[in-house]
Amino acid sequence: MTKKRIAVIGGGASGLSSIKCCLEEGLEPICFERSDDIGGLWRFQENPEEGRASIYKSVIINTSKEMMCFSDYPIPDHYPNFMHNSRVLEYFRMYAKEFDLLKYIRLKTTVCRVTKRPDFSTSGQWEVVTESEGKEEVNVFDGVMVCTGHHTNAHLPLESFPGIEKFKGQYFHSRDYKKPEIFTGKRVIIIGIGNSGGDLAVEISHTAKQVFLSTRRGAWILNRVADYGYPVDVLLSSRFKHFLQKICGESSANYFLEKKMNQRFDHEMFGLKPKHRALSQHPTVNDDLPNRIISGLVKVKGNVKEFTETAAIFEDGSREDDIDAVIFATGYSFAFPFLEDSVQVVKNKISLYKKVFPPNLEKPTLAIIGLIQPLGAIMPISELQGRWVTQVFKGLRTLPSQSKMKAEIAKAQEEMAKSLIIKTTDKPKFRNTLQNCVETIKNIKNKESLKPWHSTEEPEET
């Protein structure tokens, strides 16, 4: 029987694990990588390439090696818990070599178009047009795995900042930032307090005269190093904490986490306290930002209302003059222009079943891998997504009907839109929840009241 051919688009972390998943299921993968090497986001280059993610030289990963490694290839013991981008790339190279993945990758090959074949409703096949060294090639595939990520296209909302066109200093997106020396002795505004904004504020403050960190809504700042020196994601991701969150609810989990973060430094006092709860949006992972703020080298400001030729005026009426540079750490947008009408991205959002499968196709032979922003590492999630997808491609697993998939997508979007802010009227109910949590913890301490974690009973059939 002829092996099914699968196109894997992108040779980064998600692309590498997808190739391996295909091989494990007896499929025939061909990976198309537009640049001249693997690694995707984690391969640093001085000059950003069009269509490829770009990082700055000093980037340290925000997830620990214990939580980001692939399931069957642990990161070496002598590597640090939180790795520099060069070490992350080394790990991906070792992974590719260990499982002999490189021979399935075509470098310097751009995917131009992915279109349904005329008999798609019965065959589920795709026609993939690629270009390499000026020559186009057409291939037919039984499935497509899109692994291009979501840090490719810089989101630069200049229309939201009146006067920026008159500003005489330099301004650019954080994607184009590489090192801090060019800002020596200058006054710099960084707009956005995500991970990039926080990192750049800290790093540039070592050379700049003054850094201003502008934020619309603040952020919860999480330290990489948690209690007793353990990686924070290792402590927060335990099964015990997950169990307590299920028992006590999301509000209680937010309360305890926010209290813990405020013990390190009071977010309200630092001008960083956001309106959203800790678990409702991504925290900013930064070990040094509070130290730079308390030393005055980074000043937290509100949203910029407008720019003049040399100054920034903020929404609270304050003004900062003699500004030399503005860096927009305003995130990224993603798109799949090669997919034409098969997948639609509207306002940087896409409807996918379980964040993987487009629900509107007659055959489930197209999947998006790694297009997810979890509270943790993407790599293990991409691996699990790849396993599921390849089993669907092979026919070992089936998806629900289109109507059921769309209903579940709508439900997930509705839940995400809900606010987690506790209202004053909710406080009595919240106190009762906390009391229930306390009682639960007391019961857990009484070992006789619990069944052993590893039960000897036979599992129920599913």
From TrEMBL:
UniProt topology in membrane = Single-pass membrane protein
Q: Which reaction does it catalyse?
A: hexan-3-one + NADPH + O2 + H(+) = ethyl butanoate + NADP(+) + H2O; heptan-2-one + NADPH + O2 + H(+) = pentyl acetate + NADP(+) + H2O; N,N-dimethylaniline + NADPH + O2 + H(+) = N,N-dimethylaniline N-oxide + NADP(+) + H2O; NADPH + O2 + H(+) = H2O2 + NADP(+)
Q: What is its EC number?
A: 1.-.-.-
Task: Name the domain of life this protein comes from.
Answer: Eukaryota
GO terms for cellular component: endoplasmic reticulum membrane
Q: Name one Pfam family in it.
A: FMO-like
- Compartment(s) of residence: Endoplasmic reticulum membrane; Microsome membrane
One GO BP on record is:
lipid metabolic process
Entry similarity comment: Belongs to the FMO family.
User: This chain belongs to which protein, by name?
Assistant: Flavin-containing monooxygenase
Taxonomic lineage of this organism?
Answer: Eukaryota, Metazoa, Chordata, Craniata, Vertebrata
The encoding gene is: FMO5
